[in-house]
Amino acid sequence: MEKIGVAIIGMGTVGTGVAKILLDHGDRTARHAGKTLWLTHAVVRNLKKDRGIDLPEGVLTDDVDKVINDPSVKVVVQLIGGVDEAKTVMLRLLEQGKDVVTANKALMAQHGPELFDKARQLGRSIAFEASVAGGIPIITNISQCLSANQIQSLNGILNGTSNYIITRMDLEGASYDDAVKEAQDLGYAEADPAMDVDGTDAAQKLSILAHLAFGARVNWSEIPKRGIDQLDSLDLKYAKQLGYRIKLIGVSRLTDEGLQAVVGPMLVKNGTPLAEVRANYNAISVDGDAVGPVFYHGQGAGQMPTASAVVADLIDTAVGRTAITFQTLELWSDEANRIEMAAPGNLIGRFYLRFNVEDVPNVLAQIAGVLGKHDISIASVIQHDNDLADGVVPLVIITKETRESDAESAIAEIEKLSCVKSKTERLRILDA
Ligand code: HSE
After folding, report:
1. 98 is catalytic
2. What is the pTM of this model?
3. What is the C-alpha to C-alpha distance for residues 166 and 172, in angstroms, rounded to an integer?
4. DSSP character for 407?
5. Catalytic one among 205, 237, 240, 423?
6. Which residue of 183, 244, 344, 426 lies most exposed, with the fewest beta carbons within 10 A?
7. What CATH number should be reported for the domain holding residue 407?
8. Same structural domain for residues 269 and 379?
9. Is the pLDDT of residue 1 over 50?
């Protein structure tokens, strides 16, 4: 059988998983690729580190030039983290005539269009299924399988680490710090876990998906984002009492005012599919004008789920499928089809508001008065007397639909009232 040389640059959690599949299941990959995927090099920084895998003699190296200069290497799995070095190496690989497979969402979110243009000029391809939602084949699905549709909305749980942490806190009462440590030990978290818990990772993934789904060039850093790092476990408890779970959600949807995109912890109604997503699982709910609603669910982080997506890309590239589908991503750079972003303040939705107020008469009337002045209607109010401390009590208000900018103005005014003792928690409610 014909052999095709494959190299891996970066033997962290995912790279090691990819090598395991290539070495342990060569018969399976050959059957699908129609040729043997022959692992020629595995490039690491530290040759001495134990990675729990036995590589064939001569495969391990700390010299990336061996890959770049070896003509037998046709496809490179590039798993270098960060952006600058990863971009330089990718450009060198493409210039040397190699196709690339990557899981680096930061690189794709920041420099994807530029790298794609370069790859096309050189007649090469870049496959990046593993960059979003780990093992869920969402890139292939929205760019190929749903291509008959105008996607109307795409909402998802896109960060496995955050979902793991919230699940452990919510269902098992774990502390935030313990849950973060566990997510790191399990290999879910980024090298810098702050990127998981502050919403950066989810915003980067949402920008990639928005590119594909809506033809919108969304700069991830312009997506309003918040993570789970400032979330108070009190709100997990109150949300549960109201029949919701809090999840870190990336929302994108077409509106008359353009594409709306936002990432943040949101209340999701119990019993709906997104509310039931646990642990390191991701899920994406897509609504297309022809297909209607479609729901994807699977492990969004972890060694073998992510390696599954990388190896599928490798096989597609070896077969030549990526070379064909990569061309259709040309739409991305078509100015005429570009969709503009809507102003974030114009987002319409319901909100969960937690005010910390003095437990004295007339407080509710004052707060309700300000909300009314901003045309915000109240759906429910609960004062949590059990959590009264030092004369201050949490007061939770669920609003009816309102414009985000109106909610912000109202909160700013309410926080000036002398009965309001600390900053207000404001969480979006995800309605279908
Ligand atoms: N750190 C990422 C997550 C891994 O937790 O989802 C996959 O991108």
Report:
1. no
2. 0.94
3. 10
4. H
5. 205
6. 344
7. 3.30.70.260
8. no
9. yes
